[in-house]
Amino acid sequence: MIEVFKHHRFHADELVGSYGEEIENLLMKGFSRSKSIMQPLHCTSNKMAVHIELKVDVEGQNSAAMAAAVQRAKIRASRLHSPNSASTAVSMIQAADGVYSSTENALGNFVLLLEKLQVFANLANSVAEIHPYADAAYSIISVAYKAVLAQMQRDENIIALIDTMDDIYNFVKEAEPLRQIESHKKVMIRIAQQTTECGYFISAYCSDSFFARTIKHSVSTTDVAIINYGKMFSELKTALLDHGAIITEITVLRILETVERIETKVDLSDLPYADGARFHDSKRCLPGTRESVLSKIIGWIDAPGGTPDGKRLFLLTGAAGAGKSAIAHSLAGHYNALRRLGSSIFADNPDKPLARSRLVLLFPTIARDLADLDPQYRHTLWSVIKSDRALRKTDDFTTQFKKFIIEPSKSLVICGPIVIVIDASEEYSNPQALNQFLSVLVQHVNDLPSNFRIVITALTGSRLLRHFSETMAQIYQLPNNIGRSERLDLSQLSKSRLQSSLAREQFKQFGYSMASKLVQHSHGSFQRMVEACDTICGTDPKADLQLTPFERYKVLISSNSRPPVQPDDNLYMQELTVIYTEQGALFTAQFKSVMGILLAAHTSLSLLELKQLSNHSEDGDIGIMLGALGALLQNTTDFHAPIIPINSSFYDFLQNPARSGQFFVDVSSQYISLAKGCLRVLNDQLCFNICHLASSYLPNTEINDLPDRIKKYITPELSYASQYWIHHLVMVPSAAVKTLAPQVEKLLQTRFFFWLEVLSVLGCVEIAVEGLQELLLWESAESVLNLAHAALIFVQTFESAITSSVPHIYLSGVRFWPNQKLFQPRFAFLPISRSQNAQFFERQSWQGSITSLAFSPDCKSLLSTSSSPPPTTGTFTLSLWDISDNTRTRMALAKYEINRDSDYILGNHACSGVFSPDGKTITVFVPSKVQVLDVQTGKILHESDIGEEGGLRVTRAVLQADGKRLAATTNRAYNSVLIYNTRSGKLDIGPLKIKSNWKWGADVSCMEFSSLGNFLACSTSNSGIWIWNANTGEEVFASPDHTEYSISMTREVVFSPDETALFFMQGNSVHILRWNAQCQNEQSVHTVLSTVPSLGNRIAVSPAGRYLVYYGLDSTLHIVDHKTNLISTTLASGSHSRVTSLAISSDGTTIAAGGDHGSVSVWQVSMPFGGFYSLWGKGNDDSGWIYGSNNELLAWVPPELREGLNWNPMVSGDAHGTSWVNCLVEEAQETTKETTTVS
């Protein structure tokens, strides 16, 4: 109540009027009227009407009560502004206040809905695919009814949603509703799923804590939640009535914080993940089976406001083959369809043995699955780990659970359960790690939000059970005896599997009595039933396909099948005694040998792995012996599934002599057998590039088909041996060490790098560090310990490269390792300089001046042309240099005699040569003719004369980069440039006119094609510059006379690699000209180098266009960043001749300069690693990786080698990219090819 008084200074205040309104209604009006309310006052007198203006401000109101009131008011206000075009069902939800006049009518609608849901659930009982969802929907809505009944004053809007659901379930009143359910299975399943989700929402909606949490994050998301639910039911009803297909997923409420998240990049790929651990739909229980167990677990999960007992863990136990995994797969599939599955971890996938052995992956896998489920969780997880790489890679279970799961889960606001399913815990092979994992889970599970539910399966009698108490977990044990329900389920299972695999006529042979015998044969084990059906159908590898299915059935039923032995020492002893009596004395020795290996192994071995790693690889009796243990062991006939005990206590029994007596298994005696087996597998199967990786540029994580390659090329026994060979080796008794030393030495010396390949792709390189440290403590020969010590240093030094990329074990590790000669095979790489100055060497040509230089496309060869001035006749020489060998010339390709009277050339640019794009031929211009030569032999392949008439004399010429065209000035085209086709010798473009304001015109001083041949530039003796389109002859730029920059002759013009700019040299300065090819008026010229005394007369531009190179008069090569005008580096040479030509290789790693004394200077470019002005390359980061322009991996360099490293030559070598395998030196080449290493 608000009372308004008029204040008087000298007498009592006067009551003007009053206004009364409930807070919730006031808030609702405020939200619907832009937060400003004008209301009349109830006045005590008959004076003029008075109004009061109210404004609503709820900022800072954080109490749960206020949050709830605000939430209800906003929802009611939203109904006043709903569009008129909404469907009938949605309109009912968006209706204004007063639609429901009484609580009694509202509750009546709820009761009607419950009655219809009960009918629906009963009808769906006969449709197995729908029943679980219908039953869950009825259960959840029943609970929601109780919540609404207790707190009806919460909001009438819930009743609108109830009425919408009541409307869609009217079909149960129609004729033949069951037929309608069966004909609309997909729609019915979706209706039941959406009803369940609404039940979660209604129950949470009636909780003050729900409103307190949602208002904290985002009111707007919950405002429209009920409306969205109504829309979904409207779509479902349309699909039901119109027989349409429903493609929309169920609507699930998610509350997201209103922060800037759209542009935030979330990359969780660096967080480890167990591939293949997800549930399989194909492994779920058959529809209509295991309903009582599933209903019990689903009921416990779906309990609102937390489970009745307040527990978050559900432990399902049972004997081997009792169907625990199928139930777990069904639960995961059920909640995945409801979008409630947080994660599912199944360790029984034989294709993913790594998942079984690496428990450190489990918590990160669960975290990434939760991140996929909920965006809020994903962003919070990323904020925790994004700046901490060490945290992302931690293997500490406590840190993982707290940082990856508990901390991000605090931000979740989701009504309804979040389910995590972990199955087949016994499959994990590391007992110590498994104990740590479960201890952390049990200790901190109550720190999770109350709606988290974790379901774990375990064998009856398992050692894992000691982690779970009745106070911590809800424990349910599947019955050992076969009850009526189990018999029906087993019978249904046999019928389904036989019917799906056999022909119709074959299936008819199996009647009810035969199904009953199969049930009896299975001894209550669902796994045994599956194996029996597979044998009958012939899908089991050991099935006799010569027999008919019915004959295989009779053989199976007549066989002596004993039920699984329950965990009891007396029962174990009785079973083994029976087998011993049947098999004979040989059984005991073989039994102890085989079981010793199974017990000594670090993971559960399959039958195939067992044969490969033991001495029984050719012993056919091993399968018979294991088959006889079928009542004690699982998967004894499956080649690929891990052999595990039906009850884990059986392994404890065997290792205790007081309990097992004559059947005691001494595990220590089998370590040498496993060590020998592992060494044999490694020495036989390891090889170079085992996974056939195509390129060195991609890290392992970006190779999309790497899992398929691992499965194809790395056998299970090789995977096991690679991870555990050292663990078994160090357990070998001292007396047997000498017998194994030669095999260990062979492995380390010849297969060490190949072993690292396997560890790299499996993601467990740290095993090498731990194992080699253990090996150093092994009492072995000195040669073995020396190899182990060197190997350990290699792994510790290059672990980052080894972990990231298999090829970089060699390209980054072996390349920089000074001790690689200790190991075989041999690898060769290009020499690398570590000095601050570049590698420099000089070549001496014949007499004369170097007129041109050109690098081959592969950057391994250098072509030079030289000419000597003649007294009467001169010499023009074409030479080919092998720059990968700093000491020799490959060949002098050709020599030409030049006649002074008719062929003497003006200027050095008239004689030149270039490589073809494929590097197989050379195009060379000599006076008035063009020749094409074979690179290998120097043979002339083609020759053409320039010009159609005799007497033509070329005065200046330049070849296009690919040799296909020649630009020339001649004695017959004064002040003109002609472009010829070098193959035909005919004129292609021209004449291109050069205009001048000088009376006598101007001579061409130099010409140059752009890198792609699209433009031609020339300069004149009066400083003029001309640019043409070389394809059309169109003039692009013209500057006829000297400019403001210089009155000196333009000595050099060079295009930028991208053909957008021209560098030109005038006097002692270098300028850059940029132009617009479409608009001649858009040009700009600025100075790059100004008044450099020792500038010289030749310039070149780096391939990336950033650096300008010139050879100074001080005999020093200068490299300048033309964007900053800063000199990046200077490189000295031993030559003092004037430079007449300058060239840079296409990969930017080599610079060559030719002089007027016939010498050629060559530099291998060097810059400090990570320097700000790194030459040509992209630069580097603190990780030590060198990346290419497209982010490809080039090399990883250890910290102590980074400063002053010349890394560019690695790009031009053979051992990179798709040619990385060329680093391996074949045995036949070892005597002739030397390996260069870095000291």
Structural shape = extended
Query: Rounded to an integer, what's the Rg over CA atoms?
Result: 42 Å
Gap between N and C termini: 90 Å
Proportion of helical residues: 25-40%
Largest sheet: 5 strands, parallel
- Return the average pLDDT rounded to an integer: 75
Main sheet: which strands, in order across? 7-8-9-6-10
Give the helix/strand layout:
Layout: E1 2-6, E2 14-19, H1 23-32, E3 36-40, E4 42-43, E5 51-55, H2 64-80, H3 88-93, H4 103-124, H5 131-150, H6 157-168, H7 177-183, H8 185-205, H9 208-217, H10 219-223, H11 225-242, H12 291-302, E6 313-318, H13 324-337, E7 341-346, H14 353-357, H15 362-373, H16 375-385, H17 389-392, H18 397-409, E8 418-423, H19 431-444, E9 452-459, E10 473-477, H20 484-501, H21 504-507, H22 512-522, H23 526-537, H24 549-558, H25 569-583, H26 586-600, H27 607-613, H28 621-628, E11 633-634, E12 644-645, H29 649-654, H30 657-660, H31 671-685, H32 706-713, H33 716-729, H34 737-762, H35 766-775, H36 782-804, H37 808-816, E13 839-844, E14 849-855, E15 861-868, E16 873-882, E17 889-899, H38 900-903, E18 912-915, E19 921-926, E20 929-934, E21 940-945, E22 954-959, E23 965-970, E24 976-981, E25 987-993, E26 1004-1009, E27 1015-1020, E28 1025-1029, E29 1035-1039, E30 1050-1055, E31 1061-1066, E32 1069-1076, E33 1079-1089, E34 1099-1101, E35 1107-1111, E36 1116-1121, E37 1126-1132, E38 1139-1144, E39 1150-1155, E40 1159-1164, E41 1185-1187, E42 1193-1196, ...
Parallel strand pairs: 6-9, 6-10, 7-8, 8-9
Antiparallel strand pairs: 1-2, 2-4, 3-5, 11-12, 13-40, 14-15, 15-16, 16-17, 18-19, 19-20, 20-21, 22-23, 23-24, 24-25, 26-27, 27-28, 28-29, 30-31, 31-32, 32-33, 34-35, 35-36, 36-37, 38-39, 39-40, 41-42
Helix pairs in contact: 1-2, 2-9, 4-5, 4-6, 5-8, 5-12, 6-11, 8-11, 15-16, 15-18, 16-18, 18-19, 20-22, 20-23, 22-23, 23-24, 27-33, 31-33, 31-34, 33-34, 33-35, 34-36, 35-36, 36-37
